[in-house]
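Design a sequence for this backbone.
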């Protein structure tokens, strides 16, 4: 059966039962239909009687077209912990419509390790992304209106950095010229769209601690520069109040469930290759207050999502994982070892051993850069041979790290209890979180330290444009904040063709921009795009709805 067929056969519990499972009273939530709830969090988060549970971060190797299954593993692990008698919940990001209708698919897990209702979660869900897009585009409209109405702030129309956004893969909108048609229709200028998950409003919502902090962060957003070269903020345009109104419900975390009835907090959805790639701080903190084990995931490999989770989110929110799970598949490791996708079903120990270099680099990052205890989850595929499984476990053990076979896709929580037991043991180990770079280091040094320590490169090549941007940001005093590197997810380098654990490479820094509301500096490398395009055969071509309302073709 397909993922959606498995999900549609599940007998979903009423969301009230899931709310009661985590100790929520009727005043703590509002129904959003029968199977979803919006949570009221302030009273819970500020309750000194509620102690935090253990935080487990799930990351992965560098992704390949063969698939890794990080979200599936995250969900299955939470189910497995509950089967062991632990009080566990899962905290995930919301999927973007762009990948759903494009090529990657959704973010609701797979097989028998899914969150439900998966159709809702993968599509409009509770409307959070629409609210984020509306807030983003309200600011864009107010910028151009301000210019049209006399431009009191002297905004330089050639130095506006704020883009419009839409939650869809639409390459046609990357670069546009708008305001055409005469004076009554605005001021002509070069413009463009980002996908909603790359909007700074998404990052702001996911890093805000409460509604007041959300409004303050929105106010600090820099939309561009005036004719004197000074930054112009959202607060100067008096837009942050109305934007906060649009986001007042979107900032409230959503509660759903897994196929096995494990509570699932699903909130926020920044991409990890072009943003910071983690669910909201509010949802994570709430999940910790309501469980003994909170299992969360960060997008793509440990060089992207996990790096940003640790260097950005943990710094901002004062969080520290108690254990880290690194997801790998034998299929993907063989691709890193040079095997074509069409040949992955054949046993190839040589390629597997070569490709393990990628996994070992991610292990090194977690253990030796960040100081976190970790375990490898070998996400099982039917074509994996026993020889390949034994070799992978052996190579990990030689590196001082345990690898455990995980079969959540086929067996749900029952296939994850061995991994769950190891995670419980890891959570009892003492650890001290370190960061990849000191927060007070110059911007240039932060980028270089990240490239050398986490990516395994030898240095950076900075364009003249990026040098000018870095100098300007340091001149303006934006130094003591984290960096958020936007780069390809398909390689530890900025070149998607360099698989495994490449050596001797440099990373090209093309542009640097300030996300003052989010509280970090975005560093754009290689050819990474903040607005993806659709593939030759989009997934949307196969998605449909039957006369009775049943969705089909959604994975």
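Sequence:
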């Amino acid at each position: 059966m397909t993922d959606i067929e498995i999900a549609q056969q599940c007998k979903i519990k009423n969301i009230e039962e899931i709310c009661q499972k985590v100790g929520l009273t009727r005043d703590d939530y509002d129904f959003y239909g029968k199977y979803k709830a919006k949570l009221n969090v302030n009273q819970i988060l500020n309750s000194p009687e509620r102690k935090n549970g253990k935080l487990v971060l799930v990351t992965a190797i560098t992704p390949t077209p063969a698939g890794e299954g990080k979200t599936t593993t995250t969900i299955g692990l939470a189910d497995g912990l509950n089967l062991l008698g632990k009080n566990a919940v899962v905290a995930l990001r919301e999927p973007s419509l762009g990948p759903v209708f494009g090529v990657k698919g959704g973010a609701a897990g797979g097989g028998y390790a899914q969150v439900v209702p998966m159709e809702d979660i993968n599509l409009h869900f509770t409307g959070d992304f629409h609210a984020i897009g509306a807030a983003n585009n309200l600011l864009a409209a107010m910028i151009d209106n301000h210019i049209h109405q006399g431009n009191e702030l002297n905004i330089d129309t050639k130095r506006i950095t704020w883009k419009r956004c839409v939650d869809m893969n639409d390459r046609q909108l990357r670069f546009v010229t708008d305001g055409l048609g005469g004076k009554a229709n605005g001021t002509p200028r070069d413009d463009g769209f980002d996908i909603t998950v790359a909007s700074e409003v998404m990052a702001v919502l996911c890093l805000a601690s409460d509604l007041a902090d959300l409004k303050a962060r929105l106010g600090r957003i820099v939309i561009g520069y005036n004719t004197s070269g000074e930054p112009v903020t959202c607060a100067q345009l008096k837009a942050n109040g109305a934007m906060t109104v649009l986001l007042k419900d979107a900032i409230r975390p959503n509660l759903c469930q897994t196929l096995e009835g494990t509570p699932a907090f699903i909130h926020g959805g920044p991409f990890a290759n072009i943003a910071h790639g983690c669910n909201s701080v509010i949802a994570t903190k709430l999940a910790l207050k309501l469980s003994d084990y909170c299992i969360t995931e960060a997008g793509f490999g440990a060089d992207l999502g996990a790096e940003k989770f640790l260097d950005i989110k943990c710094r901002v929110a004062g969080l520290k994982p108690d254990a880290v799970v690194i997801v790998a598949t034998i299929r993907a490791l063989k691709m890193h070892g040079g095997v074509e996708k069409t040949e992955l079903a054949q046993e190839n120990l040589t390629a597997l051993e070569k490709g393990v270099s990628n996994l070992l680099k991610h292990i090194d990052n977690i253990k030796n850069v960040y100081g976190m205890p970790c375990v490898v989850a070998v996400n099982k595929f039917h074509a994996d041979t026993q020889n390949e499984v034994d070799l992978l476990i052996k190579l990990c053990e030689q590196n001082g790290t345990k690898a455990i076979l995980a079969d959540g896709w086929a067996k749900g929580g029952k296939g994850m209890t061995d991994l769950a037991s190891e995670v419980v043991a890891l959570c009892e180990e003492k650890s001290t979180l370190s960061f990849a770079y000191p927060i007070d280091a110059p911007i240039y040094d932060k980028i270089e330290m990240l490239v050398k320590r986490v990516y395994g490169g030898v240095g950076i090549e900075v364009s003249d444009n990026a040098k000018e941007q870095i100098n300007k940001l340091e001149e303006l005093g934006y130094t003591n904040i984290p960096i958020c590197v936007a780069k390809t997810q398909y390689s530890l380098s900025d070149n998607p063709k360099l698989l495994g654990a490449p050596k001797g490479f440099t990373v090209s820094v093309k542009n640097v921009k300030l996300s003052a509301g989010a509280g970090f500096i975005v560093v754009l490398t290689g050819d990474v795009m903040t607005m993806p395009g659709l593939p030759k055969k989009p997934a949307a071509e196969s998605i449909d709805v039957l006369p009775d309302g049943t969705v089909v073709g959604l994975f």
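DSSP finds 19 helices and 25 strands in the chain.
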